[in-house]
Amino acid sequence: MSQILDAYRGLKLGDRWDGAPKVVRWAVMLLVIAFAFYLPYLNILPFAYIRTDLSSTGSDWASVLFLIVVYMIVAVGLNVVIGLAGLLDLGYVGFYALGAYSIALFGSTNSPVVGALQSRFGFSEEWAVPFAVCIPIAIVMSLIAGVFLGAPTLRLRGDYLAIVTLGFGEIIRITARNLDNVTNGAAGITQVPVPPGPEIDGRNFFNTIDAERWYWLALTVLLLIIFLARRLEHSRVGRAWLAIREDEDAASVMGVAGFKFKLWAFAIGATLGGLAGLLFGSKQQYVEPNAFMVNLSFLFVAMVVIGGSGNIFGALLGAFLLTYLPERFRAFVDWRPFAFGVALVAVMILRPQGLVPSRRRAREFEDRRHEAEEAAADV
Amino acid sequence: MSEQRMTQDMAVELKDTSDHELIEMHTSGEVGETLLEVDHVTLRFGGVVALNDVNFEIRRGEILGLIGPNGAGKTTCFNAMTGVYTPTEGKIRFKGKEIAGTKPHRINHLGIARTFQNIRLFPEMSAMENVMVGCDARHKTSVVGVLFRLYRVRPSEEELPDSGIRRSLAKVFGISRHTLEERAGRRRSMELLRFVGIADRAHELARNLPYGYQRRLEIARALATEPELICLDEPAAGFNPAEKEDLMGLIRRIRDLGHTVLVIEHDMKLVLGVTDRIVVLEFGSKIAEGTPDEVARNPKVIAAYLGEPDDAA
Ligand SMILES: Nc1ncnc2c1ncn2[C@@H]1O[C@H](COP(=O)(O)OP(=O)(O)OP(=O)(O)O)[C@@H](O)[C@H]1O
Ligand SMILES: [Mg+2]
Questions:
Q1: What are the beta bridge partners of residue A71?
Q2: pLDDT tens by residue, A185-206
Q3: Which domain holds residue B86?
Q4: The whole model's pTM is what?
């Protein structure tokens, strides 16, 4: 018995997880999910110290949770692109912005687009595209943008792709700022609609005060996305991405349509980015170009890379850390860029594969390091 | 994959004994008809003429040897046939259809697979997963299909799960095509690994396999794509005589499954023993073609090939 226990202790956490009976795994998973839903109300010491609203200057806890989850959706999407398909996308904020702008442009009575539709079809001043219709619009817009950006650029490899996507992110923001008579330019669009729901206490179900409801909504979306992303990973699609990453030419000779699968990765990533943007814009009820600066793209990439690319849970952890820590330690706000830089450098030196990488990714890094060392020794 | 999962999987995988039906090729063509035509193909790399007006055909059901000294253009010929390079001049027809210039993955779907002279497996995938990638070439589930599993298939009695609830669910809603394809892919992969003789290390990473296993794994992966024509680029390179003999046996068994085989091999003795016909290249040109006997007697071949010290033997 003790021998078995010893052997058990020797295993890594991941192995223990894999080895645990199905019932245990389900139970743990359900507990974690239940706890996640309970988080906004967490008030028992000492756990309550994780809250961000302990001092009067702190940020609203539920809103922080909401933002964390929105960025987690972003990270899961970007992980498909960077971690699974191995494509470096530095313009991810572009899709995020597109999602937010889709719902604003079509759903807000303040938007010039809705205004034009009203006068064209003789609708009343209150009319706007219903929220439920805005969702597919946002999804389709980001999907199309992903395909349009991907189709010509995915033939590029490595650095070139990074540069082109970087440009894309900026183009979206600058376009949004300059197209005054479509997007209201720098002024932004107000009155972005919220999801429909029953009225409680004379307020919409989704309103600016009860942020935990937004958090629950986003969390539900996130769980669904994680479920789907894992389906992809453990299927012919995930295998194709991995094969492309390992040896693209050999993969294509084995019948893997490399371009098609890369484009899919891009499109899926774009869609998830758009969905996250939609949630963000809807909760803010206000969308403006400056919310989508290029540094947000870098933050997104950093989430995936620090967390551990290729592993959904790594990406989730990265998103959590990079969103939560700055909010929790708001008192040190001036130090934020510095701390961020130091943390990034530290991770890259000490654990280049990320905090919780996929095992394959960890080995790939290890291999590359050996190759580099051998190459250096040869000189 | 963790130890536990691995053993679980293996138990499932190894349960049913060898089952050739899973990996047999069923083709409609007739043995002896022309399968692939290399029609006056010339391929230049700048000034280098790698293939010079090369002309031969491969007939369904045969084992054709492609031989020649180093740098003769054998691998280049494979590359032209599998879409890696496009011929400068000339045509390549597979089952009567022009394929020069077609993308490699499309050529694979048409029915040509290959192995590489310098092994090119997916090193971070297990042996089994490598073969699964090959199987996927024939699978139909799309990305949307993987995500939403809306395409349901009415399962046969043996495909139904054992346990109660799952069984009833599968009876009512059917089983998704994706699930069935994954399952079939795993079984076929295992059978192929068994066929080439490396099933005992199915769940090890390709990079950790010994050299001989890697070479055989390449063959299994190529076979998984259900090719009518399989091209083996020096599959026995680096083998000792006993292993080489073994491999030639494997090549014969591959043909017996219903594949047509094109094989590059340096060891003249082996080539003569296993092939039905042989094409000889030298400096990019075809210098001889015929049965092993004819080729072995051909003075040009003797001068160009047999006359030289055979470094690979
Ligand atoms: N991509 C390339 N660019 C330039 N030259 C090439 C290229 N590929 C092959 N060659 C040249 O084409 C000629 C034929 O090469 P190939 O690899 O086909 O020979 P081979 O018959 O396979 O030889 P080996 O027995 O050594 O494998 C060689 O002179 C080689 O240098
Ligand atoms: Mg060669």
A1: none
A2: 999 999 999 998 888 887 888 8
A3: 31-111+235-313
A4: 0.90
> How many angstroms is it from B76 CA to the middle of ligand 2?
7
**How far apart are the C-alpha atoms of B313 and B240, rounded to whole Å?**
9
Burial B37-65 (b: 16+ CB within 10 A, else e): bbbebbbeeeeebbbbebebbbbbbbbbb
Which is nearest to B259 in space by CA: B112, B127, B116, B121?
A: B112
Taking the C-alpha atoms of residue B277 and residue A325, their distance in angstroms, rounded to an integer, is 71
- Interface probe for B, chosen from A235, A254, A260, A309 (most Cβ of B below 10 Å), is A254
Q: What is the rounded CA–CA span in Å between residue B66 and residue B265?
A: 7
d(CA A184, CA A164): 27
B143 touches chain A (CB under 8 A): yes
Q: Is residue B189 part of a domain?
A: no
Which candidate from A11, A236, A360 shows the least CB-CB separation from B124?
A360
| Domain at B86, CATH number | 3.40.50.300
Residue B170 lies in a domain: no
Spell out the domains of chain A, with CATH numbers in brackets. Answer: 42-378 (1.10.3470)
pLDDT digits 0-9 by tens, A348-370 = 888 878 888 777 777 777 777 77
Instruction: Find the distance separating the first CA and the last CA of chain A, reported in whole Å.
Output: 53
State how many domains chain B has: 1
